[in-house]
Amino acid sequence: MAFSILVPVLVVGGMGLVFGVLLGIASKVFAVKEDERIPKILEALPGANCGGCGFAGCAAYASALCSGGVKPNMCPVGGEVVAGKISEIMGVENEVKEKMVARVMCNGNPDRAVQKYYFDGPRDCHSAARLGGGEKMCAYGCLGFGSCVEVCKFGAMSVKDGVAYVDIDKCVACGACAEACPKKIIKILPLRSKYTITCKSIEKGAATRHDCEVGCIGCGICAKACPKEAIAISDNLAVIDPNKCVNCGICAQKCPRGAINKVTPTGLVRLEKKPQKPKLTPEQIAELKAKKAAENAAKADSDSIEKTAEFQIPADK
Amino acid sequence: MVAELLIISVGAILINNFVLVQFLGICPFLGVSKKVDTSVGMGFAVIFVMVCASVITWCVQYYLLVPFGLEYMQTIAFILVIAVLVQFVEMFLKKSIPSLYSSLGVYLPLITTNCAVLGVAIQNITKFGGAEMSFLKSIVYGVSAGIGFTVAIVLFAGVRERLESSDVPEFLKGMPIALVTAALLSIAFLGFSGLSF
Asked: ipTM of the predicted structure?
């Protein structure tokens, strides 16, 4: 009786012992040496795994930091606070990194941009982009189905009026939206530079003018008006150099298309107002009307003379 | 002999596919099938564990349990072997393929309780018994079962990747459509049951 209990106990217990010893040896052979700084850095990092630092996630960034050659201020989410903590852990000098935000380079909502067709497929920018480049005539227009909203882990993106919109207080400039946008019209720019060209169209001026009310036509008025020469026109599109810009706002006032907008303190990236034309006094309007009427009369006169000189056109045509 | 092994192999991969026909190992099949890359990794981990488990459990059965008349201890002994193997695979992956280790996450230790692995070990004994060449047959059966699992999970992951970008009705989004897909795959595999040699 005792034997029949003892044997199975010994057999299974022996198996367990052998396996335990084997595993013990294996754990020594396959031991992974972990830098003790990695868990500390991981604690300091926000843990959003957004990939804004350029690595696969927070853990990947932490291990890259420990293996050297990577700056401690790469985390866009944590900003200066986290950079300071990491520098302390790593024992290096902290460098201040400029705060960046995402900006949508399009202001062409359905009222302003010409529609090409009505897209009835899945509510997703990539699907829409595959069908003839999307609903808008403009090939650089925001599709407005919010693929950027889906990928944003910080709730900073939303679609208003059919155009994506960035809440600059929530934006950490991780770049996930810029990556997800099939039109590549989201740019990460320094927050310091307040004015943005809200257009990405490199079409010729006439085409952009036809496709959208608020598109940049590359006229160059802003470039001429800028006192700091911070704006350059390349490929029919104005581009502001954020390092030269002093936020004077002259370009936004001068732009005839309303394609330059300001990042306002309330978090709005877009100005809804178009620059106003100078108001005319009633006398001036009357004067202009009289002038125009006189011109028209003179033109009609000369037209009728020319026509009688040639063939008589039948009255019903 | 070769023909017999081939029949065992084809039978385990297609006709009696572990996941889609015998519904063993459903947990990792549903859990790690969101991406093709990780599902391939999972598939190979399972193949490795199944082959090792087949070899070791065969030895345990015929050199330990049968001589001492302890066949009734089969389940606990086999689970012990599988648990040790999975622990070993985990250590190995953590050292050599950390990216696969982190993407498998909790499903790697879950192979421990993966019924597909225990299923292979027990079916080896019940199917082949003490017959001639039963050791070789067990190994072939283990490899084939693992391949069958890999085929099923990779096919399923491929379908699920496509589902990501398609227009799924709101009430089917997520797990419901995944389970419907698994059911359709299972129906497709039922077609192989007509194969005969």
From this structure: 0.73
